[in-house]
Structure formats: structure tokens, C-alpha cells
Amino acid sequence: MPGVLEQTLRRFDNPAKRQSPAMDRLLRQAVFGSPAERDEARWLIWEIGQHAGVRPASIHELYLAQGRGEIPVFTTPAINIRVLAYDTARAVYRAARRLDVGAVITEIARSEIAYTGQRPAEYVIVMIAAALREGYVGPLFIQGDHVQVNAKKYATDREAELAAIRALVDEELHAGLYNIDVDTSTLVDLSQPTLDEQQRENYERAAELTQYIREHEPEGVTVSVGAEIGEVGGKNSDVHELKAFMEGYQRTLKRLGPYTGISKISVQTGTSHGGVVLPDGSIARVQIDLEALQALSHDARVKYGLGGAVQHGASTLPPDAFGHFPACQAVEIHLATNYQSMIFDHPKLPKELRREIIEWVKQECKEEWKKGDTEEQFFYKSRKKAIGPFKQRMWELPEEARAAMGADLEKTFAFLFDKLRVAGTRAVVDRYVQPPLASHAAPRPVAVAAPDDIEAGE
Question: What's the distance, Cα to Cα, between the start and end of the chain in Å?
């Protein structure tokens, strides 16, 4: 190991050092440095996490234990962190540490990777750094959400689209995303006469991608793979579709070889990503089919040995809705847009920056302005596209603004952790999940990573 890197790594053996502004500076180098600087800083953060017990892990075994009824019922929140990623993740892990939460996922979808300007390698390192900064110790469940097949591209050039999905899987596995939600639900064809025919493209491609993941996952890791039977925002799912998918999936996977299957199944119960936006920019109240969710989760566990069903598009639901998900024994719930909105709409966001974002969206996203939508509806739906272009500006917000946003996010996450019953799950997670040490070879050192540089300004 090069001397400079070894010295820096040893300095971070001290928890006080990890929880100091030195981590902020090291992460900034990992995100905004030159390619060589980024490689070095990312390696350091990964290794610091490995030695401190903050390791990317798979939630697979925990979910199967939950499906077998071996542990108390709770619904794991899967939080899509898009904007102000470091501060948002710090709020997640700050609340998780305070409430002794072990079961929490942070995730990023295929589409989000593009418009947020966060490739998997960067995203994982930001999550590790945030946990280290907040003194959170334990497995980190980091997920590739909606590794989704684009139906139009698939219809035009099937092999090219599947190759793109496999390339993303490779990138995610290499980065440390050991939880991957395969989403081939876009290929469901409801015009077909039977449920099996409707689901066939979905279950066959899902099984093939499961095979690919199993053949490429790191040694000692069984990646938690999820599949989906109903596209979010579309027709509500039912137990008959679950049966058609699972029987076809299991049959196909068995034909491919002796591979471990999925741990959960995503279903549609009435929600949509981002919620339904009203003309004034507010979100419509939706009616979730909780009976269907409960029935689907029951059959997923009892009949197919999964952890349960997964609820998507839930962050914009009213506060009184979240307690229903553990009651329905949903294994996981996906939460995203509300936390993005909390930052974009926060009173501490500088007015000039807000105006710049609005003008950028109007100019760069004008083709997305659907006929009949008000300006408020258009901006709400399209402002996420500004996250990548304004990423560095958001990171450079005044400390006061970021602290206020982080405090409000922490309160929201703490509320969710309580309602979803994941508070106090640290011990049960540690019982079922023990990620092995996975050190990586050090990159060639560059001068900027000298310990004195990282310590400067403390």
C-alpha cells in the first residue's frame, strides 16, 4: 500500500476523525475532483468504511427470514436520494442511528442516475461517507432501483436494450449496490388473452437477468434481486397476476440452472411515481388498495417463499397512510419525490438560486410541458431534471441552509421509521446480515490526497 494512502487511512481509524469535517473534504474530492483524485478518495472512503464496519450489503437473507415469519413485522423504507445527496443521506443515517434502525435502504434508479448526475460508484461512496460522518455502523443496503427495460427501445432493438441493462448491472455490482430491482414490468402485454401470455416477456427477461446477476455477483454475496409484476402508475396488480408471473419465473429460472431467485416482488396498488399533480402544483390524495397489497404480500410469502410485496410511489402519501404498510406486511416501500420537494421548496433555498432553477427548467425542459398542464404542474414534474446541472451549486449552499434542510429531513425520516416499525431493528439485521470484509487494491496515489490536505481547515 502506498505510504501516503496508508497514513491517511490510519488517521481515519479514529471515530472522531470520521465524524469531522475531514470526511466532508475527502468526499468532496471523491465527487468533484479530477479523475485521479476521485479514484483515490473513493478508494479511501470505501476502505475506511470496510474497516469501520460500514459495508455495502445485501438484504436478501433478512427478507427471506421475514417471509418465514422468524422476525417481527416491519416495512423497510427504500429512499431514493436524488438532490443534495450527502446532506440527505446524513439525515437518513442520523435518524437511523438515533432510533437504532438497521433496516433502511438508500437507492437510485436507472433514470435517476442520468438526470441527477450520480453514477453508481459515486452514489455508493456518498452513502458510505454519510454513514461514517454520522457515526452509523452496520450493513449499508444500497439498491439499484428500477433497473428498467425501456419498452420502446426493446421493441426496436431488443438485444441492444438488454445489453445496456446488463452493463448497468455490472456497474452497480462493481460499485457495491448489492440490492438490484430488475424491472421488466414494462414488457407486460395486457392485450394478450391469458395471464401467462401477458406476463411472459416480463418473467422470462426477469429470470434471465437474475441468472446474469447470480453469475456476476461478488463472492460471498447473494444479491437481493427484486422483480415487478405491474408497472407503477398502471393497472392494479392482483394475486392471479402474481401466480402467473411467479410460476413462469420459477419455471424459466429452473430451466436456466440452479440459481437463487428473487427475494421480493413489486406490485401496483394505486400509486404513481411523484404522485398525481393538481393544477395548483399540490398532490392529489390517492386511494391505495390495501386489501390487494395484503393479499399479494401473503401469497408472495406463503406460496413462493419471498419476503413479501413491495409498495412503490409512496413518499407523497399523507402521514396517516404509512402505518398501514406494516399492517399489510409489505416487505418494502419506495419513497422519493417528497424529499426532493422538501429541498426545492425549502424556505432556506436562496431565492436567486430558485429563480435560476425555474428558468433553467422552462428553457431546457420546455418540450416536456404537456398540453393542458399549468406552469405549476409542469415545474413540479420537470424540476428533477435540474438536479444534475445544479448539483455542485446545491453542495455549495450555505451551511445554515443545508443544516436547516437536513434537520427537517431528519424529522421526516424519523417519523417514517417509527410508522414503518423499523426503529429498533439494528439487532435483528445484525443477526441475519454479516457482510464480509471486501478490501480493494489501492489506486496509484496523487499528491492531493496527502493527510495534511485533508486535515486543512479543521
Answer: 26
Q: How far is the C-alpha of 417 from the C-alpha of 415, rounded, in Å?
A: 6
Q: Give the Cα separation of 282 and 101 in Å (integer).
A: 31
Q: 446 pLDDT exceeds 90?
A: no
pLDDT digits (tens, 9 = 90+) for 359-394: 999 999 999 998 888 988 899 899 999 999 999 999
Domain boundaries, the chain: 1-52, 58-345+402-437, 351-396
Q: Give the amino acid at 67.
A: G
Residues near 362 by beta carbon (within 8 Å), at least 6 away in sequence: 379
Cβ within 8 Å of residue 131, ≥6 positions away: 49, 54, 89, 93, 137, 140
Question: Grid coordinates representing 439?
Answer: 478490501
Q: Which helix (H) or strand (E) holds 79?
A: strand 76-80
Cβ neighbours of residue 120 under 8 Å, at least 6 residues apart? 108, 113, 144, 171, 172, 174, 175, 176, 177
List helix spans (H) across 176-279.
Answer: 195-216, 239-256
- CB of 334 closer than 8 Å to CB of 143: no
The average confidence (pLDDT) of the chain is 91
Residue 269 has a pLDDT of 78
Contact between 91 and 413 under an 8 Å Cβ cutoff? The reply is yes
Chain segment 143-173, per-residue pLDDT in tens? 999 999 999 999 999 999 999 999 999 999 9
Task: Identify the pLDDT of residue 289.
Answer: 82
Helix, strand, coil percentages for the chain (3-state, nearest 5): 55, 10, 35
Which pLDDT value is given to residue 270? 67
Q: Could you give the angle at which helices 35-52 and 3-11 cross, rounded to 10 degrees? A: 50
- Measured in degrees and rounded to the nearest 5, phi and psi for residue 258 equal -85, 70
Cα–Cα separations (whole angstroms), residue 108 to 105, 119, 136, 287, 334: 10, 9, 20, 26, 11
Gap between the Cα atoms of 340 and 294, Å rounded: 29
Write the CA distances from 379 to 84, 373, 375, 385, 387, integer angstroms: 19, 10, 6, 10, 13
The cell for 419 is 410508522
Q: Sign (positive/negative) of CA torsion 292, 207, 203, 313?
A: positive
Q: Please, what sign has the CA dihedral across residues 29, 406, 180, 155?
A: negative
Residue 207, classified by CB atoms within 10 Å of its CB into exposed (0-12), middle (13-18) or buried (19+), is buried
Query: How many Cα atoms are found within 13 Å in the side-chain-facing hemisphere of 266?
Result: 31
Report whether CATH 3.20.20.70 matches the domain 58-345+402-437. Answer: yes
